[in-house]
User: Fold this.
Amino acid sequence: MTSGLFSTRNLVLAAIGIALNIALGQTASFLKLPIFLDSIGTVLAAVLAGPVIGGLTGLLTNLLWGLIQGPTVAFFAPVALVIGVVAGLLARAGFFREIWQAALSGVIITIALAFVAVPIRIYLFGGVTGSGADFLTAYLLRLGQDLFPSVLTTVLGWNIADKVLTAVLVWGIVRGLPGRASSDWPFLAHSRA
Amino acid sequence: MYRPGPDTLWRRASPLTRLAVLAVVAAMLPLWPAPVLLGALCLALAGAAGLGFGRALGLRLLVLMSPVGLALGLVHGFLIERGPPGICGPFACYPEGLRYALLVFSRLALLLSVSLIFVMTTRPSDLARALDGAGVRPSVSYLLTAPLSLVESVGQEARQIRDSLQMRGLSARSTLRERFRMLAGMVNPLVRGLITEAPIRAEALEMRGFRASPKRGLIDPVEETAREIWLRRGLLALALLQLGLLLLWR
Assistant:
């Protein structure tokens, strides 16, 4: 078995993470939940294998999903990359050991992704992407706010619940993995209490 | 996503040639005005009809692009001040904003339609073979194609878990709290199962010579004529030319 950052095991994890992001994103729509749930695979890959594999999983998720769901998703690939990298760095720092730390990780991930998502949303799409979040942007614009603060408020408000829930779900999944999982995924040791 | 259909030149072409067409279209987007892009969109729709899935593609475009079009028109045509205002029925609107909204919409619709044509006519396994044949590293071709194959099986597994949860009384049409409970009930077994399987999948791949060096041999490589290879090079040159023109004009 090959070892190292791009070992076959880590590549399989990234592929599974990408498929999970796409499949669970569709499930959230089916259940009519007010969240995206399209980064569970990314955060999970980051917690199990580190920031590089997490970032790669996020980046490729959006590029491949863009082929099926529409190019809008693909343009947000850098945002997904940031989610994976930040989640991996937080996992390395031990932020996935307790549930409250996982929730805090979700907040930190949201703030980090806003730095990338807001410029993409404004400069490539003029502030709207055709999602339900556009109603909030339109409402804030109608109240007299400028485009930048309207989009920033929309991105933060729309993502925070999603990313906190995603991080908490990943914490629950990781916690329920059998003890031998630590030998399969050495990076997981950072997230074990 | 793959849809079988009549044997056409497009379907006989290598997946890499189809990817080159996608690159040409992507390079068109920032360069050309809305009427040219909408004309190309009509061509793409006609092409899809010839490939046997024009109706399916049209419906998918309608579902995916309608909300985008509405949001773009509303925000840029009515809410953001852009140029002198005009009158649109009982409302004041900004014609310049509406033109900008149309441009963004036509870019997104064209790229979506061509990428859907690519996905609907390309099996992930064919793309993997073509990438292998072109000498792309197995790890790269695996990451680009395996998720497309896995999505179907993961989605199927998610649906099975959902159905079994519904049999036990949880409903996908119930209160928000119930739907979140259902989500947690679906995600945990699905993800844990996949994570536990990952090392086994990796071992199976290595046993099949996944990282054989210097290059894996293919039993059935994608056949390509010299003319098609030259056509692909021409398409890539056209994509680069458009990007060059864009840099020159800006």
Observations:
- The mean pLDDT of chain B is 85.
- The CA atoms of residues 26 and 218 of chain B lie 31 Å apart.
- Chain B touches chain A through 64 residues (CB under 8 Å).
